[in-house]
Design brief:
single chain; 925 residues; alpha/beta; 6-stranded antiparallel sheet
Amino acid sequence: MAHDASHYLLVPGAVVRPESAADIGRIFAGAARHGVPLTFRSGGTSLSGQASTDGLLIDTRRNFREIEVLDGGRRVRVQPGATVQAVNIRLAPYGRKLGPDPASLTACTIGGVVANNSSGMSSGTEFNTYNTLDSLVVVLPSGTVIDTADADADAQLAAKEPDLHEGLLRLRRRIVDNPASVEKIEQQFSMKNTMGYGLNSFVDYEVPVKILEHLLVGSEGTLGFIASATYRTLPILPAVSTGLLTFDNLIDATSTIPALVAAGMATAELLDATSIRVAQRSGQVPASLAAIDVKDHATLLVEFQGISSEELADKEAAAAPMLSSLGTVLPFSMTTDAAERDLLWAARRGLYTTVAGNRPSGTNALLEDVVVPVERLGSTCQDLSALFDEHGYQDSVIFGHAKDGNIHFMLNEQFRDAALLKRYEAFTEDMVDLIIGAGGSLKAEHGTGRIMAPFVRRQFGDELYEIMCELKALVDPRGMLNPGVLLSDDPTSYVQNLKVAETVEEEVDRCVECGYCEPVCPSKDLTLTPRQRIVLRREIQAAEAEGNGQLAQQLRADYDYAGVQTCAVDGMCLTRCPMHIDTGELVRRLRSENQNKLAATGWKLAAKNWGAVDAGAGKALNLAKALPFPAVQNVTKVARTLVGEDMVPLYKKHLSGGGTRRHPHADEAAEIVFFPACVNAMFGGIDENGADTTVNATAAFTALCERAGVHYTVPEGIGELCCGTPWKSKGYTGGYAIMRDKVLTALWKATDGGRLPVICDASSCTEGLLTMQQKVAAAVESQQGRNRVAGEPDFSRIVFIDSVEFAADRLLPQLSVTTPIASLALHPTCSITHLGLQSRMVQIAEAISPDAVVPAAWGCCGYAGDRGMLHPELTASATAAEAAEVNQRTFAAYASTNRTCEQGMTEATGHSYQNILQLLEQATR
């Protein structure tokens, strides 16, 4: 919990996880008695150091995630631990969304969005929290709780906190009676501005409780705890068109902003010349951008948004004369094509990945933001670029929200080196002078934090700074809430407590500790998140570097369970990581390096004799099913005690009996090769009542093929083959290599050298087969200069297709739904997500049911093959939110795409999850 996305690091004295606002009040009282400072922490995505402390850290992510949709979606009440994306998912069925749209919306939480007054690409100042907040519930440092939605909220504040009520009025009079103060506030807050306190609250509101409500927005946890916030929402504008405007230089580009805003552009994202060069190096740019011979060029990525295609067309038509007169140096057009739009945005999104991902090991990636009046934007960008050159910063890109005058820039810095730290200080002083001299703000949307706290006085002047200090003392007289953040009289505080990134394993060394991975991690509420797994590796290295072997040894011991055993290695972190890190690769490496030699030998032997192992496991499940459940489970409990919980699975009540052995199938007219997964032979299928059935996923797929007139073949020796996932996930590299060679060789023959595609009936196994293929291709590619031997198989020519994709694209059009399913709850698996096939799963579900639902709280079940039987607590924690949502109603059927995931969800919900192929087969008989 000490590490967040910023470049600061303070180690808290303790971490507490309250469960209610009442708990917060008790914590406040205890902290006051003992003089302990405290800081709130939720998503940990803030970049300015506002969520770090060496006092008491209050984790509000785990127990404050409630979301309540109000007024048909026009308002929403949210607790601080819910992510922006989670809120928007709940609002989507109503055609609504939140106003703030930060780039970190998948991971940042409402607590931080309110505390930082976050905005984003299209929200500007009009739709930020300050301007879309309806009400909030706050716990003040005294323990007083105020719900500003109450009709008598101001009277409550006056009665419970008379000094605060009167003090707010006094400060307001001091401001409004001073024309210079009012002018300064109006100028500063006409832009995005998250420096210091939001003194515009005193100008915009007269009633103390409304002043306080809006002062809390952007207060960075220094004035109170926001227990919930109620937002007014915005309509979703589904019609979108995107275009790229290219100019000779920054001045030409930024001079067009007023006209673009007047034409109704929702976004106008700036890329400077360095950004264009960096984007070109990534290879993920449209041809028009790749073709630029970059000198001083700049581009604007622009978008129109509308409620309908007709409205969008009207906006484009009205803007056409203006757009044609802008003097762009390349042809320009707007596109609504999703693939083309994604390619355009890839250039913008990939900047952070490219610059931060290529930084030297041990350095920190700093992403900063500033804002200036739009008319000063071009010259400010030029001057900022000159500062990069002057101070020796390379590849420091400038990009951002040009329509608001809000730009971001990136620096890679090594704080361990005293000379480089002096360079950073000198650059910061010059940058502060530049932005303030342009009439701008040193923070537009990232919050003041620790990084800019010493410069608040310089930006606002003595009078307004003193008002801010008086406000802090008025609300938090003991100064216990987040000291050192937002206000600081120590001019060097911004270079204190800097984070030094230790070099760790190459799989994860480029991690920037942003925390984007955390919401999708199945172990996040049980042990560690991917970010925490990585930073603990850094802490181990730091302890060793400092000669603290005892600490390093203790961390390693604790890491085994929290970091290794309870990692599902599901790769979901990869789907969110801007650095494209799969923390599971680190865990697989650690499992391999620390593997039990006897177990590794056993798994290697199993790879050589998989048919017997697979059949034996099925028979064992049949035997276990025939015996009294308590007796069988007790046997496994004893074995787990003797051998270890990470070695022996726990027998579960809902486990099915064994499946049916796999057999080859020949057909000269075959158009596909069917690879039935061994997991469906090991575990038998279940019906809607949880009873064993012979029609499992494998039987359902073959029945569907025959029904649709699709001829297939099953490889010779299929009983000995497996996708290799069990070996890979456990780190048994020797056994994995044996199985990989067996499988790819067999499939090369069965597919006639790649002529026929391979279809697999378990999504994780399809992903496993693809991984096998990719590993071999990577190995071949690494052997530069080696010529392929005549007749040597080229496994890269084998095409793997998941059965869900094949069923949706090839089988479904040939089938007739005769028995629709009244309602259907879906659990997309991690592998389906990695394969990009969730939409195909939903397509099948909607074809057989008029009421197919993917829960808003869907996530990885954590079963991960046998991980849910080795550590049942992992699956219980991972599925808690989804199970609670699913069980709010009763569905006619429940479906997933992998046998062990179906097992995990069956255990979690008490309902029988079947493979989607089983349900498709039933519905089309």
